[in-house]
Please model this.
Amino acid sequence: MLRAYFSRLPLTDRVTHWWDLWAGLATGFFNGGCIAFLSIAARRVGVSDAGMALMLTMPYVGALSGILLGHLADRYGPMPFYLWPTLASRCSPCCW
Model:
């Protein structure tokens, strides 16, 4: 079924879908393997409940904001939606 779907796509789209499929699988393994144990490690270090909730929800907030930024970039042009979030992430206190 997947092979028939890929055969109808142009070559560049096939390669993009293939890498996106592997990226999704790697993200699934990462989320299942690491984020499940993040709360245990955070509790042992002494992180508060609010800090632990913030750490566990940030990947999902980032994924949802990526969808929003993708829609806005498609509508208004990509440069401001690349520049400002990248600048904000580089200047965050976590990177200091």
